[in-house]
Amino acid sequence: MITDDKQTNEHLRSYINYYTGLKNPRYAVLVKGEWGVGKTHLIKNILKDDQKFYVSLFGLTTIQEVHSAVFVKMYPNRSRLKKILNWFGSSSMKANDVTLALGPLVGNIANALIKEKVDNSKTIVFDDLERCSINLEDLFGAINKYVEHHGCKVIVIAHDDKLNDELTDKKEKIFGQVIKVTPDIEGAFNQFISKSKAPIAFEAIKDIIYKSFLASECKSLRILDYMINDCARLLSCIPDKLYNNKRLLSEIFVLFTALNINYRLGKLKAKEIESRNSVLYYVKKDTNADDIYDEIKENYKNHEVPLRLESDLLSNEVLIDTIVNGLYDKDKITKSIDNSRHFIKPESKGPWFTILNFDLYPTTDVDNALEELYKQFEEMQIIENGEIQHSINLLFMLSEAKHIDKTIDDIYLFFLEYVRKLQKNNKFPPADLFTEYEPIRDSAYGYGYWINDSYKHYSSKLNKILAQQQQIALRKRYPQFLADLRNNLKEDTAKFCEQISRN
């Protein structure tokens, strides 16, 4: 059932109706609330156009601009403006989106006219108080002039937390009533869903994303609207096999909405989304550090909404594409879901994948994967940077857990020997010829490396050593590169150009 905000904010509606019915209240009303809760929307619904002069303070820098903006709203008819101001000549004064023709006497005379020519038949609504750069004390003085001197009814919309604490006394003298707006999340949610491009399709996830929004502790209806639009775009990219699986739908959309909301709130940055996997594995690397993921997890736990931040249904790349860049590539999203641990066969990833997800498999399967890992090391089949780092870090973890009889030092020495063995047998894949710098990564194939405090000093060395070995492998191939270039310069100029081009 679609509801509206009448019941939720009936106190606001009732008081505004009472206030606007007063003849000369001699005080203003402050309507406050968090960013995006719908303060402006509510006031515009309560007061129709013929009941108010709506003035946005956004971008205004002087008191003169405030008076000019009010004047233009009160006298919007251009011919009437010209009649009032025609004796000022040909200079100009800009107020909001209207330019008034003024003249050489514009100074004190025009200012006086604009300040004194006031229509108090309607309520003045000042919006975006915190978004103008005028000194608040001066601004309150101008507002007070409309209230005290001209007998106007004035409503000011603001994020009250942004107001200067030093002006509390001044504020209390001007505002006879302060009303806090409460967001009608349920009503807005139903309304946004009904207006979306696929309201029927939303039935499968409606309850999921509503509970996720509540768990996020976000109060902004703007962000709620954005989130629903983003969910609609993601929903259109989800393969059919997920629609009938409530558990996986919940996993994917709770993850997506939790990160989406906190990114829009400014609490999460792109780099933190990229590191979400590794954060779960070694978040305790600095027990004194406050972590945004701890806050998110605590909020969802308190609302009893299951959130799996480590879920691989949506890879970090997909999350960055969708949440940060607004790109919804259906093929890439489908591939990410297909490659998740819910659908991919362990053997297609390698033994490290089974060990990493030991909680999903019987102990015998994990032990078999460990034997296969040793075998692949023996046969030098593990050559990719990410696969090596996953495998070695997992051996570190198993050593720490006393599941294998090798010490952490033993495993690090084993790694160094394996690297030398690969290089000696020319098994190392070379570094990219045109990449000058390879950033240090803490994840590969969409999974963070399993890094704990007891061995992170070794883990931090793995990437550097592997990068050095790849550069050595690249230099080994220089003679062959040169021979190929010379041959292609003679035989295939197109291929030659391709070889020397970064593109």
UniProtKB/TrEMBL annotation:
Residues 24-53 form the KAP NTPase domain. The lineage of its organism: Bacteria, Pseudomonadati, Pseudomonadota, Gammaproteobacteria, Enterobacterales. Signal peptide: none annotated. This is KAP NTPase domain-containing protein. It holds the Pfam family KAP_NTPase. It comes from the Bacteria. InterPro entries: KAP_P-loop, P-loop_NTPase. Transmembrane segments: none annotated.
